[in-house]
Structure formats: structure tokens, C-alpha cells
Amino acid sequence: RLLPSATLRTDIIAEHLGGHFPWTATLPAFSLISAELEEMLPSDFEERLDEVVAENDQSLVPFLVEISRFMPTSRSSELVGEALRDLTGQNYDSDDWEAWMDWVGQNIDQYEPPSEYATWKADFYAAIDPRMGQALRSARGILQDRPDRSRMGWSLY
Predict the structure, then answer these.
(1) By Cβ atoms counted within 10 A, which residue in 9, 63, 86, 116 is the most buried?
(2) Nearest Cα residue to 136 out of 149, 118, 148, 152
């Protein structure tokens, strides 16, 4: 299954998207994530996204929205956007991350992410800035208890 990993030292995109993403929490800048992704996306990325769509694995919608912001090429961005449109029926542009984030936040009850998502998200953003990961981890319990947490773009859903 395509599941976000619990840490950045293991496969972020796991079986369906393949590839290994050995990031550590010491990446010096946000912009490096796109460069790292360019080197790490498997050659069969498109086929693996097609499998996710064919299996209609809607639990991966929040994850795909999250990684869409970091796609290194217009082609990879379009592939993720296409998968999102197929899975959700929405027509946002592939590179309109803010629209996708707003939409998935408002509809998270229909697209409940895998249990590993919150940990993955905190680790992912900690790679950009350790303080971001710490803030997300600290807020996790509070946000999970809030009935309307879906409107918080930086929440862990």
C-alpha cells in the first residue's frame, strides 16, 4: 500500500510509489525537498500513482496533497494532480496546493488518512525546520480533540 512512513529515514511513499527517501531531520532548507524528491522518485512513479487510483485508495488523498507542494517537475506535479482529481472528483490545478489543502481540510472526514500520517507529517516538516515538526507534534493531542480541526491547514487532521 501507499502509506506515508513514520520517519523520513524509511520509504515515505512505500510500496505503491516505490523508491527510498532517506532524508534526515537536518535538511538545511525547504527548497531542498524538491531537489531531493527529483532524485528519489522512482522511474515507474506514474504507474504507481495509477495503481493508487485503480485501487481507489482515498486514504492517501491528504498525503498526496501534502507532497504535491514539493513535486520537483511540472510533469510529476501534474501526475499527482491528476491522481488527486481522479480520486476526489475535484478540478483544482495540480500546482494549486493552497486550494487542495483548504478543500481536503474541509472534507477530511471523507478522506481519513492512515494512522501513520500525523507522525509522517511532523517528521516531514521537521526536515524543513525542526521547530515545525516540534510544533506539529505538540499540537497533535489538542488538534485531535477538536471537533472542527479540519479547518486548520497546518493541523495533523
Answers:
(1) 63
(2) 118
Distance CA 68, CA 61 (A): 10
Residue 113 has pLDDT above 70, yes or no: yes
Q: Which residues contact 55 (CB under 8 A, 6 or more apart)?
A: none
Residue 104 to residue 154: CA distance in whole angstroms: 12
pLDDT in tens, 38-73: 666 777 888 889 999 999 999 889 989 988 988 888
pLDDT in tens, 33-45: 666 666 667 778 8
Q: Is 123 exposed, middle or buried (0-12, 13-18, 19+ CB in 10 A)?
A: buried
Cell (9 digits) for 17? 510509489
Q: State the residue for C-alpha cell 506514474.
A: 46
Separation CA 40–CA 44 (nearest Å)? 11
Q: How far is CA 39 from CA 28, 34, 43, 138, in A?
A: 17, 9, 10, 32
Helix (H, G, I), strand (E, B) or coil at 35: helix
The helix (H) or strand (E) run that includes residue 81 is helix 74-88
